[in-house]
Amino acid sequence: MQARPTSAPTVFVIDDDPDVREGLDALFQSMGLKSQAFRSATDFFQSKLPDQVSCLIVDVRLPGLSGLDFQDELAKTRIDIPIIFITGHGDIPMSVKAIKAGAVEFLTKPLREQDLLDAVRVALDRDRTRRQQEAKTHDLRVRFEGLSAREQKIMSLVCAGLMNKQTAAEIGVSEVTVKVHRHNVMKKLGAKSLAELVRMADSLGIPHRH
Amino acid sequence: MAAMLHLRPDHHEPPFAAGPIRRWSTRSGVAIICFLALLAGSSASAVQPLPRAVLILDQFEVASPFSAAILSKFRSTLQSNSVRPVSIYIENLDLGRFRGAEFERVLQGYFREKYRDKPIGIVVTIGSASLELASHLHAQLWSDVPVIFASVDESMLDELELPANVTGTTVRLSLHDAVSMARPLVPNLKRIAIVGDPPERQFIRRRVEAQVKSLANEFELINLTGLTMRDLRQRVSSLPDDSAIIYIGLTKDADQVAYTSHDAVAAVAAVANRPIIVQAGTHLGTGVLGGIVANPDSIGYETAKLALRVLAGESVSDIPVMTGSFMRPVFDWRELQRWNIGEAKLPPGSEIWFRRPAMWDQYRAQILAACTMFLFQAALIGWLLFEHRRRHSAEIAVRHSMSELSHMNRLATAGELSASIAHEVNQPLTGIVTRANAALRWLGPEVPDLDRARAALRQIVSAGHRASEIVAGVRSLFRRDANEKVPVDINKLILTVLRIARIDLRKHAIELQTQLDEHLPAVSGNPVQLQQVILNLVVNAIESMHATRTRVLRVKSELAGPDAVRVSIEDTGTGVDPSNLRSIFKPMFTTKTRGMGMGLAICCSIIEGHNGQIWASPGSKGGSIFQFELPTLGEQD
């Protein structure tokens, strides 16, 4: 949780009630978290969001755009940020819908501190993991794109489970040549074993071909 | 006929001229006896049915009320009891003033010519002078016609032996009777004043002089006969207190002025200072006390009965003379009062005339009508009071049940709005709880940040106050109302309601537009009730927009004229069918699948209870506008 100061996680709060906004703001400050509050979903969308670990705390009933609609809207704009819903008076169908759509938690006001902290921790962890995952994949893709076309082809065939001999037959080179390319691929991508290479191919979405 | 001639010499002397009364009566007596003897002789020839005609010889003048009453009764009795009509001829001869042989001769010729072609069945005479005249004329004119006499002094009969062809009725005109009747009525009666013609001209009464003389034994007599009317009136107006007046009939005074007996007694009574005793029933009412009086009605009646019997063929000789029953004691009630005479002192069987009817007798119908009206009115008033009371208690009951309903309506609305209310209350609580948590952290073990903790706590205090305001607002919406009226800021009520309804508005994505006039005057009203009206209208508006795409709720307050405030709540909902715009305010009217249909009825009742009005109209962009107006504070007080 104790992140580096430059990349302190931020909690975004969207609630039209000033009491709620200011209260949450105070609480997160006391916890050493950065927080940023918005009156409405529109305000949130209009603001420039910092690229760092963050989560959203949103009132289910918002003026203009309801919390669940907001969730859809976020998904559409491919902003993948964990959401914690809060409500003054929630019902089960609403909470089920929210959780199914990917919400971290559904809390009722007045908020219990521990519940809130747990939810925020989970949300931030999730975001952090996501961000790390995203960063890793990005790195791999850069390296993958540094491979020659033949190397990429050979990687795809190897990860599809073909033997060196079969791969050589497939592309019309000698088995030795395949071994050299394969070694180069593993070296460039930093894969220590064939299993790791296969996982990388998976995360890059490289099609397995028979 | 010979007897008649024999009688004639007697008639050369005027039989009614002034002279000793004794002589007059003797002579008349002889004449009548002869006349009757003659009639008896000729009666044998009357075998055929009598002509149905009656000739009445009346000795009085036409204007005499006494004879008029006799004649009237006679005629009516005769005609109503006779199968075939009877001709009645009447001769009013005024014998009190016109008499004598020459007059009789003229009359005889006159009658002969007059009745030449008119056969007479019965001759009826009224008064003793008339009977006397008939005896003179009879033989020559109507020799075999039966005679019936009436109103003849009883004492006259003592001298007569009636022939078979004559019968009739008598009266008893006794001065003695009159005086002995008067004695108990007039205290200390010592003097008797006699008013009338002098005895020698009394042609009804017989032996007046003798009667007067016998009175003189007991009383001091005041002779007021033979005076001029002027003197007479003067004398009777200054009689002593122990006197009474006896009136014996006056037809001519000393100035030779002729009167009817009736007019004369009236003239006397007008000035007399003592009670006047009379002997004719018709004199009652002229101002006389009364007395034992002859009753002309019964004389006329009985005489007619006799005539009917004769006309029916009965022989006159079989009919005895009828005496007695025509005199009766009659008194004028007003005179009894004047002379202070108690009715107990009157002779037994006395009639009292002219009794001023008691209020009850005189106005019985009016009194009954008035009493009935009064009772009816009283009953009506009682009934109205009863109804008023009933109505009053009914109103109380209605008001009570209306207040119950209204409370139920608020509770139902509370149920519908419970999510909003919970949300509304939880908002400040959330703020409080989170800030409190923050404060705890600032006060944490390592390096407490007291300034931040203090700031958080300060915010908690103000948030707590806000929370309590919200709770109070919610409470004010749903508490049982105290039915009191206070100055109310209508905008404040609108905002309180909208605050609660806000969540619902948001839930249904309804845009709220408010346009509240900040300078509205206060209205006098019950805040709970008025809030309920606004809340009902807002909730209705929200519900009406469930199915529409455009959802705008517009709430407006403004001044409507100098002394009224208007609140308009407009929605873009499904609207109200124009034909229902009026009936929606009636109880049990509803277009919703659930609900009692009482909401608008309660609104209407509340607004009317505030002397305001509420109405609905179609909205400008679809939907509907509900508006109400309330008088401002200035006008109500």
Hey, roughly how much beta strand do the residues of chain B contain? 15-25%
Point out poorly predicted stretches of chain B: 1-46
Tell me about the biggest sheet of chain B?
A: 5 strands, parallel
Shape of chain B: rod-shaped
Strand order of the largest sheet of chain A: 2-1-3-4-5
| Strand order in the sheet with the most strands of chain B | 2-1-3-4-5
**Percent helix among the residues of chain B?**
40-55%
Rg from Cα of chain A: 23 Å
Largest sheet of chain A: 5 strands, parallel
Report the CATH topology name of the largest domain in chain B.
Answer: Rossmann fold
The helix count of chain A comes to: 9
- How far apart the termini of chain A lie comes to 45 Å
Which pair of chains forms the biggest interface, and how many residues does each contribute?
Answer: A-B, 26 and 32 residues
Oligomeric composition of the shown chains? heterodimer
Report on the architecture of this protein:
The complex is a heterodimer of chains A (210) and B (637). Chain A is of the alpha/beta class. Chain A is 55% helix and 12% strand. Chain A has a five-stranded parallel beta sheet, sandwiched between helices. In chain A, strand 4 (83-87), helix 4 and strand 5 (105-108) form a beta-alpha-beta unit. The radius of gyration of chain A is 23 Å and the shape is elongated. In chain B, strands 2-1-3-4-5 form a five-stranded parallel beta sheet. Chain B folds into three domains: 26-171, Rossmann fold; 175-296 and 324-359, Response regulator (Rossmann fold, 3-Layer(aba) Sandwich), CATH 3.40.50.2300; 484-637, Histidine kinase-like ATPase, C-terminal domain (Heat Shock Protein 90, 2-Layer Sandwich), CATH 3.30.565. Chain B has 637 residues and is of the alpha/beta class. In chain B, 47% of the residues lie in helices and 16% in strands. In chain B, helix 15 packs antiparallel against helix 16. At the A-B interface, helix 1 of A face helix 15, helix 16 and helix 17 of B.
